[in-house]
Design goal:
By secondary structure, this protein is an alpha+beta fold. The strands form three sheets. A five-stranded antiparallel sheet has the order 4-5-8-6-7. A four-stranded antiparallel sheet has the order 9-10-11-12, sandwiched between helices. Strands 1-3-2 form a three-stranded parallel sheet, with helices on one face. Helix 11 runs antiparallel to helix 12.
Length: 285
């Protein structure tokens, strides 16, 4: 294959605009290199974007958090800003693979790879993130939910993810905004999630009630998805042990509807209950 190594985004787009064959982008390479070595993919061109500094940043701009697509999971997990304003994403980043993988793997690569078990993806759903992409046809910005839906909004050939951004939610009165991420893997470390889940909750600490919430689960289908029915049911509910049971029961039903008859259904319908209890304890302690 041919190889290109641009130093700016504009240089990269100019290069791929002159190429008629397939181009694959390489950043961290933690998934891509395995596919190249196995022969699963054989692109005509490989473009290394890991040396483009404008893709590596984490910053607060107005009422949003902006993250460059070349930001590694180590940088995300170590960022005080992400830990404070988007705790679920910080937790997800800290649980990606091993330390060596987190030092190389990038959030843009996790999105582009689009694994159903990608750890950052449920967190991006509950954060209601947007994704900026650029290609030979120009620039566009879409919601992460649209980008992963694979219905025309998805990532197109020769398109490069440049940035991810999401709003900073500001609760009112006694309310506070809290979020958390959890996963279950086949091993205690360096594991691909057999289930993962993120939640973001607007919580009235005085009345101990949920005002609003967003929940998303991964590794239960082709893409992670929001649990919108659960979100509606939880509005105004008091946080107690009965609520934990209610959420666990609902999630068991989610598994049954998502993977009916699958060999993993029995395991996952039990595992998701434990994951729900862990997540709730993390959220409300």
């Amino acid at each position: 294959m041919d190889f290109a190594c641009p130093l700016t985004v504009s240089e990269g787009i100019e290069t791929i605009s002159r190429i008629d064959e397939e181009v694959v982008f390489l950043s961290g390479g933690t998934d891509l290199v395995i596919k190249l070595q196995s022969g699963e993919i054989e692109p005509a061109w490989l473009m290394d974007i890991s040396l483009i500094p404008e893709l590596k940043f984490i910053k607060e701009a107005g009422d949003r958090i902006m993250i460059g697509s070349g930001t590694t999971f180590s940088q995300l997990s170590e960022s005080a800003l992400v830990r404070q304003k988007a705790r679920c994403l910080s937790q997800a980043a800290s649980q990606v693979g091993s330390a060596q993988i987190r030092n190389r793997a990038t959030i843009g690569g996790n999105i582009a790879n689009a694994s159903p078990a990608g750890d950052s993806l449920p967190a991006l759903l509950v954060l209601e993130a947007w994704v900026s992409v650029i290609g030979p046809q120009g620039f566009r910005r879409v919601t992460f939910d649209q980008l992963q839906a694979r219905d025309g909004y998805g990532l197109q050939k020769k398109e490069l993810i440049t940035e991810i951004d999401f709003p900073l939610w500001k609760p009112y009165g006694n309310a506070q905004m809290i979020s958390a991420f959890g996963k279950i893997g086949s091993r205690t470390a360096v594991s691909i999630a057999r289930l993962n889940m993120a939640a973001m909750v607007e919580f009235d600490s005085k009345d101990q009630r949920i005002l609003n919430s967003r929940w998303a689960v991964g590794a239960l289908g082709l893409t992670p998805f929001r649990l919108e029915t659960l979100e509606r049911e939880l509005q105004g509910k008091k946080v107690d042990q009965d609520l934990a049971e209610e959420i666990a029961d609902h999630l068991t039903g989610v598994v049954d509807r998502a993977i009916p008859g699958r060999s993993s259904q029995g395991y996952k319908r039990q595992a998701i209950r434990g994951l729900a209890y862990d997540l709730l304890e993390d959220l409300f302690q």
